[in-house]
């Protein structure tokens, strides 16, 4: 019997899940107390979930499973349509939210200014690699989701991940200026359909963490460019529109795509 199989027998799935959540939050939250000394310091380490995924996989399952985990991050051979979904879908989702907000009478914060087109790839790279998606997705979708899918339908597994994903952001709401940037309740309501969409893309791309990382990165990049167009009540209303648009898209995938309905066998 291989080392990985021997170790995994000593670690039940429930134990792995609990340990992952504890380690991921601890690895992400440790800078939080430092904000008491320096309020301008970052209260959150975005790479925590990925570190937890690698550590827990090594301890609970062995080196072979670590390799399988990391290979999900370089699984790039998928149909081109899924690259279009990952890179254009979030832009359409957030763009539609902006249009709906304007249609409901929300005023712009000022003259519309966007970063030069030449800087957008760099902004996307920074938001994806440094801002969180690369540090998160190997944990949420690479480790956590495959351990939930054998026991729960994809919709339920997504709903279980959503509150953990929200909890991960807690220091940013409590200690950082993002409380004014992200209304906590609306952010939680947004994370729920986003979790469903990430699961859908993960399953449709044969467990490609690369594609869900690109999706997550595009969501963050488009949000950072388009959300500042509004302030005050108009900004809060934009978040409500974003929740509605994401919920409609997620509901459509659940209703129309059979892959979101059955119990999916565990894939390594």
Automatic annotation (TrEMBL):
Domain CAAX prenyl protease 2/Lysostaphin resistance protein A-like: 120-221
Gene Ontology MF, one: hydrolase activity
Domain of life from the UniProt record: Bacteria
Enzyme type, top EC level: hydrolase
EC code: 3.4.-.-
Assigned keywords, A-Z: Hydrolase, Membrane, Transmembrane, Transmembrane helix
Residue spans crossing the bilayer: 12-32, 44-61, 81-104, 116-134, 155-173, 185-203, 210-230, 236-256
PANTHER family for the chain: PROTEASE, PROTEASE-RELATED
Protein name: CPBP family intramembrane glutamic endopeptidase
Organism: Pseudonocardia charpentierae
């Amino acid at each position: 019997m291989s080392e990985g199989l021997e170790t995994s027998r000593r670690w039940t799935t429930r134990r792995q899940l609990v340990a992952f959540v504890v380690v991921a939050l601890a690895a992400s939250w440790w800078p939080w107390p430092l904000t008491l000394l320096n309020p301008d310091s970052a209260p959150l380490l975005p790479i925590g979930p990925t570190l937890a995924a690698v550590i827990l996989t090594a301890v609970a399952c062995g080196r072979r499973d670590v390799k399988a985990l990391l290979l999900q991050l370089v699984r790039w051979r998928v149909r081109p349509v899924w690259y279009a979904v990952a890179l254009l879908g979030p832009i359409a989702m957030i763009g539609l939210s902006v249009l709906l907000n304007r249609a409901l009478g929300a005023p712009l914060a000022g003259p519309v200014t966007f970063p030069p087109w030449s800087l957008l790839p760099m902004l996307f790279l920074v938001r994806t690699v440094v801002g969180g998606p690369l540090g998160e997705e190997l944990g949420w979708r690479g480790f956590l989701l495959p351990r939930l899918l054998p026991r729960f339908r994809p919709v339920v597994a997504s709903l279980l991940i959503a509150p953990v994903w929200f909890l991960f952001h807690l220091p940013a709401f409590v200690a950082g200026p993002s409380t004014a940037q992200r209304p906590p309740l609306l952010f939680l309501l947004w994370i729920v359909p986003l979790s469903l969409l990430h699961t859908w893309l993960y399953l449709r791309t044969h467990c490609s963490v690369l594609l869900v990382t690109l999706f997550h990165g595009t969501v963050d990049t488009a949000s950072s460019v388009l959300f500042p167009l509004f302030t005050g009540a108009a900004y809060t209303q934009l978040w409500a529109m974003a929740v509605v648009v994401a919920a409609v898209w997620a509901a459509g995938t659940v209703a129309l795509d059979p892959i979101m309905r059955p119990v999916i066998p565990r894939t390594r």
